[in-house]
Amino acid sequence: MTTQFLSGTQTETAPGEVRIWDRFVRLFHWSTVTLFALAYVTGEGPDGVHHAAGYALLALAGARIVWGFIGSRHARFADFLYSPRAVLRFLLDTMRFRAPRHLGHNPAGGMMAVALLAMIVVICCSGLMQEMDVFWGRKWVETVHVYAVRGTLVLVGLHLVGVLAASLEHRENLARAMITGRKRAP
Question: What would the 3-class secondary structure string for the chain be?
């Protein structure tokens, strides 16, 4: 076993593996999945559950934004924000099955992470706005909310396709990595 230090915590990793995703990133990821699904299925149901899930999502998104500046190496935005040209080049390389492997987010994954985070913020803020007197009954606020949810569902589908493609191309279970926090060493 090797010992690595990330964000001031000592963690054990198996030989041939490195710790990539810290505990907060993994908890954020799976909590967001769960809360988004809960909010989606309760959207036309009891407001209390739907609203609670939305508030929790907004709090998580705020915490993730902060963690994007102060978190561990691969959690920081600076580690996975790439230019649109780099993202396009990566996607073209992926289609040719010659995209380079990245320990953290690859360029497309980084863009997807930011897009999903932004959409969660739009969904939550438009949901909150629907409850405010000043926006009560404004059709455009509801329209933004509904289309942001639909757009997020499309992004989630693309995210899953990207995870599957990268997992197959690099022979690496990326879903497992988001559970354990570890990936194969370079």
Answer: CEEEEECCEEEEECCCEEECCCHHHHHHHHHHHHHHHHHHHCCCCCHHHHHHHHHHHHHHHHHHHHHHHHCCHHHCHHHHCCCHHHHHHHHHHHHCCCCCCCCCCCHHHHHHHHHHHHHHHHHHHHHHHHCCHHHCCCHHHHHHHHHHHHHHHHHHHHHHHHHHHHHHHCCCCHHHHHHHCEEECC
